[in-house]
C-alpha cells in the first residue's frame, strides 16, 4: 500500500531503521501530555479545559468509543484518493484546521505557524476572529495556504463589515460564523486562575488593527489597553440575535457561508432556511455547555434532518484518523481538527502541526483502506456498529 498519506508511516519506519525517532509522538494522549509539559499552566488550562465538570468534553470522546468500525477485506483498495468536493472546489483531504483563538498562547508564531502548516499540507486553516496574528499578517506569511475566516459577529455593524472586508481583501475563501459562543461559558480551570487570555490582550490582533474598532475606542489602545479590553468585551458578541439576523451576513458575504456550533436538528433546518451553504455540527469541544450531548451523537440527528439539503461538517472530539472515518461515515463531508494541532503547535511550531496532520491523515488513509473504501465519499453508516 503506498499512497501519499499512508506514506508517513513508511517514512517513520525507514527513519527508525536509520536510528531516528519521529519528531514528536504519534499518540494523541501522549501528545497532549507532552504539550502540557512545555506550556505555561494557564495557557494549557485554557486550551485543554472545557465547561463546568467537563462532562461534555468527555462525552465527545466516549461517543467515538461507542461506534465500532467493521473491517472489510478483499476489496482492492490499493489506489486511494482522500480528496473531497466542497463548495464547488476540491480539497486534498476531508480535514480542516478548526478556528482556535489566541494561538500565540501555544507558540510565539501562533497562527502564522499554523498557516504555514496549512500551506505545506493543503489542509485549510480557519482563522479565528480572536487570533494572535491579524488577518493580514497570516495571509502575508502563508499566501498559498487555503484560508477560511471564522467570525465572532460583533454587535457593531461597522466593525462587522470591516472584518468581512479584510477577509475578502486577503483572500479568505469561506466565512464560518460561530453561533454557540455568544456567552462566555463557566470554565473552572480558567476561573480558578482568574485567567482569560483576551483580558491580557492575547487574541485581539484583529481588533487592535481594525480602523472601525479603533474608532470605537475612547482613547488609543496603546495608551489605554484596559479600556481597549473593556470595549472588546462589550463589542465581542450579541446574545440578542435570532435566525432573522443571518440574512444580513448573507447579503454582505458573497462567498460560501458556514454556520458553526449546531447540534439541534431544528437549528440545522433553520440554518439551511437562512441561506447557509453548510453547517458545522460542533459543541465547541465541550467548552460551552456542561452535561451536553456528544457532538458525534448530535451529528446523526442533524444529518437525518438536513443531510440531503446541505453540507454538514463536524468537530469536537476528533483525535485520530479512525475518529475521522467515523464522523465521515455518519454523514460529515469533512472534519475540523481542534486541540491536537494546537498541541503540535506548542511542541514544534509549523513542524509540530505538520506532524500531527500527517499522522492523522496517514491513519485516516489506512483506516479507510481497512474498512474497504478508496474514497471518503464511499463511506456510509454501514461501516459502523454501535457498541
Ligand atoms: C483553545 C480553544 C480556542 C477556541 N477558539 C475558538 C474560536 O476562536 N472560534 C471558534 O469558532 N471556535 C473556537 N474553538 C472551538 C474549535 O473551533 C473547535 O470547535 C473545538 O476545538 C473542537 O473540539 P476538540 O478540540 O476537542 O476536537 C476553540 C477551541 C479551543 C480548544
Ligand atoms: O475559548 C473559546 O473556546 C472561544 O472560542 C472564545 C473566544 C473568545 C472569547 C471567549 C471564548
UniProtKB/TrEMBL annotation:
**Positions annotated to bind FMN:** 99-101, 128, 150, 178, 282, 315-319, 338-339
The UniProt keyword set, sorted, is: Flavoprotein, FMN, Oxidoreductase
| Active-site residues (renumbered) | 284 (proton acceptor)
Q: Which PROSITE patterns is this protein grouped with?
A: FMN_HYDROXY_ACID_DH_1 (PS00557), FMN_HYDROXY_ACID_DH_2 (PS51349)
Q: Which GO terms describe its molecular function?
A: FMN binding; oxidoreductase activity, acting on CH-OH group of donors
Reading the lineage from the top rank, the first entry is Bacteria
Which InterPro entries would you find in this protein's record?
Answer: Aldolase_TIM, Alpha-hydoxy_acid_DH_FMN, FMN-dep_DH, FMN_HAD, FMN_hydac_DH_AS
**Binding of glyoxylate, residues:** 46, 152, 187, 260, 284, 287
Q: Which stretches are annotated as coiled coil?
A: none
**Cofactor(s) in the UniProt record:** FMN
What the record says about family reads: Belongs to the FMN-dependent alpha-hydroxy acid dehydrogenase family.
The molecule here is called: Alpha-hydroxy-acid oxidizing enzyme
Lineage of origin: Bacteria, Bacillati, Actinomycetota, Actinomycetes, Kitasatosporales
Amino acid at each position: 500500500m503506498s499512497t501519499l498519506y499512508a506514506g508517513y508511516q513508511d517514512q517513520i519506519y525507514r527513519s527508525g531503521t536509520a536510528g531516528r525517532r519521529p519528531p514528536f509522538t504519534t499518540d494523541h494522549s501522549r501528545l497532549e501530555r507532552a504539550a502540557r509539559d512545555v506550556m505555561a499552566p494557564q495557557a494549557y488550562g485554557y486550551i485543554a479545559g472545557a465547561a463546568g465538570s467537563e462532562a461534555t468534553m468527555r462525552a465527545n470522546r466516549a461517543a467515538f468509543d461507542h461506534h465500532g468500525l467493521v473491517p472489510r477485506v478483499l476489496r482492492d483498495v490499493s489506489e486511494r484518493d482522500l480528496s473531497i468536493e466542497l463548495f464547488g472546489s476540491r480539497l486534498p483531504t476531508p480535514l480542516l484546521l478548526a478556528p482556535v483563538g489566541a494561538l500565540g498562547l501555544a507558540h510565539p508564531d501562533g497562527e502564522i505557524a499554523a498557516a504555514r502548516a496549512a500551506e505545506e499540507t493543503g489542509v485549510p486553516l480557519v482563522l479565528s476572529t480572536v487570533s494572535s496574528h491579524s488577518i493580514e499578517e497570516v495571509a502575508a506569511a502563508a499566501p498559498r495556504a487555503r484560508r477560511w475566516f471564522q467570525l465572532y459577529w460583533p454587535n457593531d455593524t461597522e466593525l462587522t463589515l470591516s472584518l468581512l472586508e479584510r477577509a475578502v481583501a486577503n483572500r479568505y475563501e469561506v466565512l464560518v460564523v460561530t453561533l454557540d459562543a455568544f456567552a462566555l461559558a463557566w470554565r473552572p480551570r480558567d476561573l480558578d486562575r482568574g485567567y482569560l487570555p483576551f483580558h491580557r490582550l492575547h487574541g485581539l490582533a484583529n481588533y487592535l488593527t481594525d480602523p472601525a474598532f479603533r474608532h470605537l475606542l475612547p482613547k488609543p489602545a496603546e495608551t489605554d489597553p484596559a479600556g481597549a479590553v473593556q470595549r472588546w468585551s462589550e463589542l465581542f458578541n450579541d446574545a440578542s440575535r435570532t435566525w432573522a439576523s443571518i440574512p444580513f451576513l448573507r447579503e454582505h458575504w458573497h462567498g460560501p457561508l458556514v454556520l458553526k456550533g449546531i447540534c439541534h436538528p431544528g437549528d440545522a433546518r433553520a440554518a439551511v432556511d437562512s441561506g447557509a451553504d453548510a453547517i458545522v455540527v460542533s459543541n465547541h469541544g465541550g467548552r460551552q455547555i456542561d452535561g451536553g450531548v456528544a457532538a458525534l451523537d448530535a451529528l446523526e440527528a442533524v444529518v437525518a434532518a438536513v443531510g440531503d439539503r446541505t453540507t454538514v461538517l463536524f468537530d469536537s472530539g476528533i483525535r485520530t484518523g479512525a475518529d475521522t472515518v467515523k464522523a465521515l461515515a455518519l454523514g460529515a463531508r469533512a472534519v475540523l481538527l481542534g486541540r491536537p494541532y494546537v498541541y503540535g503547535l506548542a511542541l514544534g511550531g509549523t513542524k509540530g502541526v505538520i506532524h500531527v496532520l500527517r499522522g492523522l491523515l496517514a491513519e485516516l488513509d489506512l483506516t479507510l483502506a481497512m474498512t474497504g473504501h478508496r474514497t471518503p465519499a464511499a463511506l456510509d453508516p454501514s461501516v459502523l456498529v454501535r457498541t
